[in-house]
Design a protein that fits this description.
Elements (H helix, E strand, L loop, with lengths): L7 E6 L1 H5 L8 H15 L4 E6 L7 H6 L4 H25 L4 E5 L8 E2 L2 H9 L3 E5 L9 H12 L3 E6 L20 E3 H6 L7 H9 L4 E5 L5 H6 L6 E4 L1
Parallel strand pairs: 1-2, 1-6, 2-5, 3-4, 3-5, 6-8, 7-9
Antiparallel strand pairs: 8-9
Helix pairs in contact: 6-8
Length: 238
């Protein structure tokens, strides 16, 4: 068995990943596959924090485009991420994986309010900690929330799980000649406008010298390969 290269990681999981091939909500088989990958890495002794998005239920930016006030739309998006955090926690617990939810949006009896020291204690006790509620503020994406939580808990690597197996020179669905980068710097990603993360998340990762790995969560064993240093996806370095 390969040894992990990291003691603590932060996984950014989009809400869309939870719905799999469906158009909305949760896809049981897809959720089971994600839980299985998390279990493989937790079994190596790696401490895992997760920031989950809410796009399978509601997207603040989409609501704003439809005419809703942006702060209100973003608040609804934050609540969607809390729902996803609870769904993921339930799936992990059903698989026998200890998990705990912390939220940036205080909701009594639903999840513990985010508190850095408590989050670290949970991680050190072997629990997967799922962070819901984004940053708790409007106008910030869950990419920024992931970078923020990664820095706060002292993660050694931030992983962005997507539907695509890395960062490409162009959208591979639209351009068949697009090629995948094995690695690139944050500056290169920004200069080439590759859209890997939003600007605030990029700035925070670069400032904290926090490397990023972009990979497909739909490839079996991909998360474990990243954590053990096997070739997988695209590495973006400060």
């Amino acid at each position: 068995m390969s040894a992990p290269l990291y003691n603590r990681i932060l996984l950014k999981l989009s809400g869309e990943a939870l719905m799999g091939p469906d158009a909305f909500g949760y896809h049981a088989e897809t959720l089971h596959g994600i839980v299985q990958q998390i279990d493989e890495v937790a079994g190596l002794g790696v401490q895992i924090g997760i920031v989950v998005g809410g796009g399978n239920l509601f997207r603040g930016a989409t609501g704003a485009l439809a005419g809703m006030e942006r702060a209100t739309a973003d608040a609804m998006g934050m609540l969607a991420t809390v729902m996803n955090a609870l769904a993921l926690k339930d799936a992990l617990m059903m698989a026998g994986i200890p998990a705990h939810v912390q939220t940036a949006v205080t909701i009594a009896h639903v999840g513990e309010a985010f508190e850095r020291d408590a989050a670290i204690r949970h991680l050190e006790a072997g629990r997967v900690v799922i962070f819901g509620g984004g940053t708790g503020n409007p106008f910030f994406t869950t990419d920024t929330a992931a970078a923020l939580r990664a820095a706060e808990i002292g993660a050694e690597l931030m992983l962005k799980a997507t539907k695509v197996d890395g960062v490409y020179t162009a959208d591979p669905k639209k351009d068949p000649s697009a090629t995948r980068y094995t690695e690139l710097s944050f500056d290169e990603a920004i200069a080439r406008n590759l859209g890997v993360l939003d600007t605030a998340a990029f700035a925070l990762c670069r400032e904290q010298k926090l490397p990023l790995q972009v990979f497909s969560i739909f490839k079996p064993g991909a998360l474990k390969r990243v954590v053990t240093g096997e070739p997988e996806g695209t590495r973006v370095f400060p």
